[in-house]
Amino acid sequence: MFLRRLPQAACVLSACVCLILAYEDDVEVNYADNYNYNEIPDVENPEPTPSQAPCVSRDLTRWDKLFSMLENSQMRENMLLQYADDIIKVEMASLRAEILRFVVQFGGSCGAAMETAGRRMASLLEGRLKETMERLKPRDSASAAAAAAAGNPVRGFNQLEAKLQQLLAAAQAQTSRLTKLENSCLSRTAAGMGLNTKPGAKLPEEQEVTPQEAALDGVLAAMQKTRVELEEVLRSSMQRLLPAGCETALLFPMRSRRIYASVIPDAPLSLSSFTVCMWVKPTAASNRTVLFSYGNRRNPFEIQLLLGHTSAHFTVGGEAHLVEAPGVVAASPGGAPEWVHLCGAWSSRQGLASVWAAGKKVASSPGVAEGHVLPDGGSLQLGQERGGGVTGLEGGFDPKMAFAGKMTGVNMWDRALSEEEISQLALREGHGSNPRGNVVAWGVTEMVPHGGAQFIN
To answer: What is the structure's pLDDT at 393?
Structure first.
């Protein structure tokens, strides 16, 4: 039994010995490997070891991209603003240099021209104001005397004179102030710049703007405004005031067959020549508007002085004898009506009839009712005509031919006035309604308004 197991035991023992020897060999090899790992190999061109892969960033969200775009746009905006600021500074510096160069070269001549123009404008304005005051003084005194006699003082002229006095004082003050400012501006320019216009002259680096120079433009603008206001005041006053110093006027407020004025002359109208003159200010005119009319039952159209849209018509002895003067009536630039002086003259010796407007003969025609004599016993009307042979009845008037507006200075003479006499009557700055007519005299002959017609101051 023992002998039978002996070979098996020998085999197991030999196997153990082999295992021990193999373990020792492995330990030695491991030591050798560790030692060799720390040594630097003797290789001339070692192969490079691959580096680790870079870190991969996470994906950007929509908000991250939006914030990045905003930051980029803000940075670009700042860069553009800085660039624009630099450009503006450069351009302003060059513009300032050009302006200073222009002032140095032309400052003296421009200042002298401005001074001359300002003084001329101030002198013209002052002269016109004084002339207006001189023209208004006689009117004011005559109106005040007439109003005192009537017990009704006129306040409009005193107020107008006070306003004009204030405007004159303001204009004089502004003129003196402008002269001082111009002298100060020129002296400061000459002293500060030396008026050196040589090619090699140095330009001043800085130019201070004095309060006088800054106020110069304001003073000029104020003077221009004052001039415009003064012209407006004068124009409105000329429209409100009665022409030629007449104290009263007839007002025809509207067109109506009931609105007219009848005239009762002191002398009979059996005339072989005459002249009729008046001032009219129409508010509306048709193709045939009656100003002055005389007629009887047999011929209601013996004398007619008519007004069209822009023309005047004059007839004697009937409608067949007509003298027309076109383009004698025109509105003011502002559209408001203005006073116009009209006259009609006739002589039976040669039948010469003429129409006068603003003191000038505008139309003339011979052979008008030659040898005719005006009959006495007719009726004379202002603002209407007696038509249809109906005497004493208002039904004979035509509302389409009625006059609407104001009328003053109505006079009639028994002769044909000369050109000089009519020219004097047409002056707005004349001596009232004098000379008055010897057949019809304004302010003396009885005139009876009818309907809504009335006398006004």
So the answer is: 38
Query: DSSP assignment, residue 401?
Result: G
Please check whether residue 318 is in contact with residue 301, taking contact to mean a CB–CB distance below 8 angstroms.
yes
Residue 392 has a pLDDT of: 41
Query: Which three-class secondary structure state does DSSP give residue 156?
Result: helix
- CA dist 91 and 97 (Å) reads 10
454-456 and 249-252 as β-strands: parallel, antiparallel, unpaired?
antiparallel
Task: Count the domains in the chain.
Answer: 2
What is the rounded CA–CA span in Å between residue 213 and residue 182?
8
**How far is residue 2's CA from residue 10's CA, in Å, rounded to a whole number?**
12
- Do residues 176 and 182 touch, judged by C-beta distance below 8 A? no
Question: Taking the model in full, what pTM does it have?
Answer: 0.51
- Last residue of one domain, picked from the residues 185, 216, 241: 241
CA-CA distance, 383 to 31, in Å (whole number)?
Answer: 149
Are 186 and 123 found together in one domain?
yes
Which tokens is 269 given? 């109208």
Residue type, 388: G
**Is residue 152 a contact partner of residue 96, using CB atoms and an 8 Å limit?**
no
Rounded Cα distance between 126 and 176, Å, is 12
**Tokens, residue 430:** 């004349």
pLDDT along the chain (457 residues), means of 10: 66 69 51 50 57 58 83 85 84 83 72 72 75 65 52 52 69 73 62 49 48 64 76 62 75 90 87 93 83 90 89 87 84 67 92 92 91 90 71 58 91 93 81 77 92 89
Is there a contact between 226 and 177 (Cβ–Cβ < 8 Å)?
Answer: no
- Does 108 map to a domain? yes
Domain region containing 171: 83-241
Distance CA 279, CA 282 (A): 10
Residue 144, Cβ neighbours under 10 Å: how many?
15
pLDDT of amino acid 391:
40
Predicted pLDDT at 111:
66
Tokens 């098996």 locate to 8
